[in-house]
Amino acid sequence: MKNGLKNKVQFVLVFITLFNLEFANAQAPQKLSYQAVIRNTSTVLVTSTTIGMRISIVQATSTKLDVYIETQTIPSNVNGLISLEIGMGTKEVIVYKTN
Fold first, then answer.
1. CB–CB of 57/28 below 8 Å?
2. pLDDT digits (tens, 9 = 90+) for 14-38
3. How many other CB atoms are there within 10 angstroms of residue 76's CB atom?
């Protein structure tokens, strides 16, 4: 009798686990963290200054199409460091020409 009850309990636990997995959804993050140290053309740190950035994700083909473009304005700190999240800026519209 104990084996029958044990088997029923195991069946119910497996059923509950599978039922919960059916409703579990994984989501890809909508942003990507990025940090950089900003220097001018003389390699001097650009500190405590607002920096404008244009971020492009480019498709690796011979034509190098931009597949995503955004702009952001970020302040650098006293060490010239900026921190931003790609995906949180102002998105640009990308128009593709097809042949």
1. no
2. 777 776 666 666 676 788 999 999 9
3. 19
